[in-house]
Each structure stands twice: as structure tokens, then as C-alpha cells.
Design the sequence.
């Protein structure tokens, strides 16, 4: 068997693997970096996301993580000649409930102290409200702006009368996953990294450390370090190392609706309706849903969080109102064909104009992917407890936005550099800590999730 020697082998060329290759081969100039990918780079989970980012999180550690990752994304955008489509229109959280409006204010005040930026509370005038740039991120504000209902509708006329307040969080926006992944891998290859199109079927261990890996095509790669960047396949891949990681895969679907009536302008922020609601079905639709055991749940009160963004001519609609958990992903994933209609109805309270599309759900483009999640919904980056084995994963629904900080941290581990303050947040060792595991059942696996 022919064995080629590579210093670092990264298994997986999704967004985490692409970022890892860039940080190792380009930023740290590590020779002999090899990426092994069986499919298309950034073509599985990475391609199924909303291509969005935010520094809005419910704890200071994740705020620090994302601020650093966004710093690095902005640096990549500048180095790439602004080719990754980085914009910053923000996220706009909207509510029709006074108590929730106060909760948004309080959350923004806490987040401001954590590094999200200044909280600006506006009166009736829009004069002090900072506008987002039409393109790019230069001059874009950070922090958050709390708007009452009248000012909210003045600035965003497509928002309905039910809204009494909105919190516009500003260091949030969109980018092109394909452009970013292509640029990162291209830069890594130009710096000497190589891309091998094959599938890993085994890991060679000897003398208490990783020695190499075996490929489905019959070849093998020796290595000093093996990096698992396999997205939703992490639990399965860990089994090749003889490890059991308490991870789950959570299936998330989204629906793309062509906005041919221009209900929402192209420069809208990502919009979130915070309130619980019952969907606005007609009487005949209620009867049909009530007779279908698989869809009766859509007649119940559903949680808040229906949201969307504009991408091209589509409204990309999402709403995590139910859990689909598994130990391993199943491909191709299956989605309810009526998901699009439920999402359209779920956005009606925030955007009344979307009722023009009632009945258009069957024509929506429905797809999605898996969030690979640790019990606390926080990342895993660093050594796996076997000499030479590392992980960059469990990035849940924030892989695109969080992968730059993850890759930088991985590079710190591999090079023996000082670790940043947020390293403990992602320590894989916590999954072997009996105290952590004892608390795992009570941990919120949706913490920070939209």
C-alpha cells in the first residue's frame, strides 16, 4: 500500500474544514496540509444554510467568540477584494407584546455590556437612527437600535400594525458561502495545501497516537495531526478513533418563496417574529389539518421565532417549531411538503403583505441540513484526547459565522500558541467531564439558536 506523508490532514471541506485549511496553510504557514473530501467542497451542510452571521448571543462567551469570528470574516472580505458578498443589514427582532418588548430592551442592555455594542433607544424621530450601507460593511454601525412601532413602520413599511417594537441588532448580515469556501480553499492550495477527493474509511493508531488514515480508493495518508471537520458526521467519525461523543444531529428545513410581488425590499434585514402564535388557517384548512395526525400540530399555538431573509428574488423562510433529533444524519433528508405553507402563514403577523402568497406553499423550494450539536450547543475545537487527533466541529447552526474563530483556535492548539479567552467554551474535554455529563440533560441544546 502506497503511503503519502502529510503533516496535517483535515477530513472534510465544509466551511469548518475550509477555514481550518486557510488558517493553517496561509495564516500559520504550516507545510503539508492536506484536505480530504468525498463530495463537493462546502457542498453539504454548508450549502444549506441561510448564509447569515450575527454577534447577538445570550452569553458573553459566545458574543466574544462571534465578534472575533466576524473580525476575521471582515479581514477575509478585504483580502479577497470584497468577493465573498459580506454585507451588514442587521437582524431585526419584532414583537407585538409589551412584555417581550421590555425583554428585548433588557437583553440588548446586557449584550451591550458583553461587547455587542451600544444600545440606542429611539423616540419618534428617525434622525438619530444610523443607516446600514447598501453594499459591504464599511461604515456600518454596531450595537442595537430599539424602535417603537410607529418608527419601526416608518423605517420598514412592510411591517404590520401588530408590531409594537423592534430591536435592530446591527453587527449581523449575510455572505456567500460558496464564494467564501472557494476563496479559502483556493488560498490554502496556493500556499501549498492539497485537496484529495476521497472518503476516509479508517484511522491508523499506534503507540498511543494517530499515525494516518485509510481511504476508500485504496490509498492511505500518514500524518502528524488529524483534524475531524466532518460536520454532521462527527459522531460517526469519532467511532473510527474509538471515541463516543454525546452529540446529536438536528434536522432543519427552510423554504424559498419567490417574492414576485415585491412584498419585502431586497435590502431588508433578517427579520424575526418573536411572539408565539396560532397560524391563520381558513375553516376548510382547519378541518383538513385536524383530520391529518401528522399536521394537527399546526393548529396548536406555536413558539416564537418565525424568521426570513431576502436572497435574490427569494424569501428564505425558517422556523424551529419542532425537533427532529437523531444520532446520525440521514441523506437525503426528508421534509414535510407543506412546510412552505406553514412558514408563509407564520410570517403573516409580522408581514401582512405575505398573505398574497397564501396557497403558494407547494411551489416553495424546500431544503435544509443538519445541525451537529453538543449538549450545550457550543462548539468543539481542540484535541480529542488521543495524541495527534483534533476536532473542529459541533458548530450547530453557526458554522458559517463561527468557523473563522474556530479555525484560528484550532491553529493555536496545533502550533502550541497561547489560547484565547474563549478557548474554554469549545474545549472537547468537557464531554468527558462527569460533572458536565451529569448536567447535560438539563442543558439547553437550543441556547442561542433562532
Sequence:
Amino acid at each position: 500500500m502506497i503511503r503519502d506523508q502529510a503533516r496535517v490532514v483535515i477530513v472534510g471541506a465544509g466551511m469548518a474544514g475550509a477555514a481550518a485549511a486557510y488558517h493553517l496553510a496561509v495564516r500559520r504557514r504550516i507545510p503539508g496540509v492536506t484536505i480530504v473530501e468525498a463530495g463537493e467542497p462546502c457542498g453539504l451542510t454548508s450549502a444549506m444554510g441561510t448564509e447569515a452571521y450575527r454577534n447577538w448571543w445570550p452569553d458573553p462567551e459566545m458574543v466574544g467568540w462571534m465578534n472575533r469570528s466576524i473580525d476575521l470574516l471582515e479581514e477575509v472580505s478585504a483580502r479577497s477584494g470584497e468577493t465573498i458578498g459580506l454585507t451588514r443589514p442587521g437582524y431585526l427582532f419584532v414583537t407585538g407584546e409589551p412584555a417581550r418588548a421590555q425583554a428585548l430592551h433588557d437583553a440588548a442592555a446586557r449584550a451591550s455590556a458583553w461587547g455587542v455594542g451600544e444600545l440606542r433607544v429611539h423616540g419618534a424621530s428617525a434622525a438619530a437612527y444610523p443607516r446600514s450601507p447598501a453594499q459591504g460593511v464599511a461604515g456600518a454601525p454596531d450595537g442595537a437600535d430599539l424602535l417603537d412601532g410607529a418608527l419601526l413602520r416608518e423605517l420598514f413599511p412592510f411591517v404590520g400594525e401588530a408590531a409594537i417594537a423592534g430591536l435592530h441588532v446591527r453587527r449581523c448580515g449575510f455572505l456567500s458561502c460558496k464564494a467564501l469556501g472557494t476563496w479559502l480553499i483556493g488560498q490554502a492550495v496556493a500556499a501549498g495545501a492539497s485537496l484529495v477527493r476521497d472518503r476516509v474509511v479508517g484511522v491508523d493508531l499506534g503507540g498511543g497516537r494517530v499515525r494516518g488514515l485509510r481511504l476508500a480508493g485504496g490509498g492511505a495518508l500518514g500524518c502528524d495531526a488529524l483534524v475531524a471537520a466532518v460536520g454532521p458526521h462527527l459522531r460517526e467519525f469519532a467511532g473510527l478513533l474509538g471515541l463516543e461523543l454525546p452529540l446529536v444531529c438536528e434536522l432543519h428545513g427552510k423554504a424559498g418563496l419567490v417574492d414576485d410581488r415585491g412584498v419585502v425590499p431586497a435590502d431588508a434585514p433578517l427579520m424575526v417574529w418573536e411572539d408565539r402564535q396560532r397560524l391563520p388557517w381558513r375553516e376548510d384548512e382547519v378541518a383538513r389539518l385536524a383530520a391529518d395526525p401528522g399536521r394537527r400540530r399546526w393548529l396548536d399555538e406555536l413558539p416564537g421565532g418565525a424568521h426570513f431573509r431576502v436572497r435574490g428574488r427569494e424569501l428564505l423562510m425558517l422556523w424551529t417549531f419542532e425537533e427532529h433529533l437523531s444520532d446520525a444524519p440521514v441523506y437525503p433528508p426528508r421534509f414535510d411538503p407543506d412546510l412552505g405553507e406553514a412558514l408563509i402563514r407564520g410570517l403573516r403577523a409580522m408581514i401582512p403583505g405575505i398573505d398574497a402568497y397564501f396557497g403558494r406553499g407547494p411551489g416553495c423550494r424546500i431544503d435544509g441540513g443538519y445541525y451537529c450539536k453538543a449538549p450545550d450547543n457550543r462548539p468543539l475545537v481542540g484535541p480529542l484526547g488521543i495524541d495527534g487527533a483534533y476536532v473542529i466541529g459541533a458548530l450547530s447552526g453557526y458554522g458559517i459565522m463561527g468557523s473563522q474563530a474556530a479555525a484560528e483556535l484550532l491553529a493555536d492548539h496545533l502550533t502550541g500558541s497561547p489560547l484565547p479567552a474563549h478557548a474554554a467554551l469549545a474545549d472537547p474535554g468537557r464531554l468527558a467531564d462527569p460533572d458536565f455529563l451529569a448536567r447535560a440533560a438539563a442543558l439547553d441544546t437550543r441556547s442561542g439558536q433562532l
Summary: The chain has two domains: 3-51+177-247+374-442, 91-171+249-373. The first helix runs from residue 15 to 27.
